[in-house]
Write a structure and sequence with these properties.
Blueprint: H1 5-9, H2 15-21, E1 25-29, H3 34-37, H4 58-67, E2 72-78, H5 107-118, E3 121-126, H6 139-156, E4 162-165, H7 182-192, E5 197-200, E6 206-207, E7 222-224, H8 230-236, H9 259-263, E8 268-270, E9 273-278, H10 296-306, E10 311-316, H11 327-343, E11 353-356, E12 378-379, E13 387-405, E14 414-423, E15 426-433, E16 440-459, E17 464-465, E18 467-471
Parallel strand pairs: 1-2, 1-10, 2-3, 3-4, 4-5, 6-9, 9-10
Antiparallel strand pairs: 7-8, 11-13, 12-17, 13-16, 13-18, 14-15, 14-16
Helix pairs in contact: 4-5, 4-11, 6-7, 10-11
The protein binds beta-L-fucopyranose (FUL).
The site of beta-L-fucopyranose has 7 residues, from loops.
Length: about 475
Amino acid sequence: MGVSAIEAAQIVPSSRQMAWQQLEFYAFIHFTVNTFTDREWGDGAESPDLFNPTELSASQWVEVCKSAGMKGLILTCKHHDGFCLWPSRWTDHSVASSPWREGKGDLVKEVSDACREAGLKFGIYLSPWDRHELSYGDSDKYNAYFINQLTELVTGYGDLFCVWFDGACGEGPNGKRQVYDWDAYYHVIRSHQPGAVISVCGPDVRWCGNEAGHTRKVEWSVVPASLKDNEKIQAHSQQVDDSSFAKRIGSDEEDLGSRRTLSATDRVVWYPAEVNTSIRPGWFYHEHEDQQVKSVPHLVDLYERTVGGNSTFLLNLPPDRRGLIHENDAETMRSLGKTLKQMYGRNLALGAKATASACKSDEHEGSRATDGDPGTYWRTEENVEEATLEIELGTIQTFDRIVLQEAIIQGQRIEKFHMERLHQGQWQVFYEGEIVGYKKICRFDPIETDRIRICVTQSRWYPTLQAVQVYCTGAKELHI
Ligand code: FUL
């Protein structure tokens, strides 16, 4: 029993996980009959007549996402109520029975087309739990139904970057117990969409464990293989339709990958985290929440803790009954995009001279971390686990953020580091941190200097840094 640090250091992402991680920030779109009933969970008895958005524009959704700097979008093709946003041939509980576009509409097609046109990646959410479909609970029968629907979605709408399987299920008192055939579902996805990650109840992307936007201080991508257990994921997911779940923070599992955890596990896997939360209290649109859209500073803080905390950020935007993202949300997203561009528009360390205390070869010398090329990186020799990288900014600069990125294609290695600045001839520590991973945004009060030292004081096997970026974001004025 026990995995060594060197063994863990050699676990690397798959190419689909790598491509997904680089998207960083993308949208969830929750839209269905619930939008028209003002509910969060439909009971499956809703009439398709209810579904009638009058001004639906998928290109408006996509524009809003792009304006905030998002790179992808995941649509709830079928939520727990079972209503399908595409004309599935396996049920009449779909847009085909609704008045929208006189029953000839296909929302999955409209959204996937709009994404493709705008250069956004497209992904699907398909709820395994289905409160409408009569076969639900008759395991083999429902599994066949679900696979038929899944096949329609993975074959009919172009390349998908993600298939998102929710763990939520509120069945119980009625005795329905569906045994999901996860392996068969995964097989369908892998056969038709080999580039798509399978998230939450899936092997590629780990749910962070809450919907409140809570992030771990230390988020490892190399974690015990047991975290992929769907039964456990489901047990931690939402089981009652009340708004308190969205605010709940399960912080019982803060340490998923330290040496202490490794020593108590026999197998580790690359299973990186995604943080999902909504721009409003609910996942679906409710008029009474129009004034409860999260503020730009709140979203910037979330962005920095998620994307800048070795996770990705999946932010939900619920379209309203018109089929548009409400003005308040749209305006917030545009202003978020502008703010992030201003904050992270000018990297003061781009092209800076960087000298390492140790490096494997010229190909991996210190300035590979400041050359702006994501394909190059600094690294030390095997077993050189402590090293320092000194950056010369050229002139005295004021800054309040340093972004670090490991070359995760090699694995996740850094366990402890601190940063120093040269001030009046003395090196002074201004930041202490633990893991880095894909991206770590280090936040601190503005400081001045022309020289920075990044000191890796503990790592696994050998550390790498693919990027060191320095920014003056002025975030203090944002009240973050
Ligand atoms: C939860 C669901 O019950 C919510 O309705 C929402 O879809 C969220 C993303 O996942 O488990």
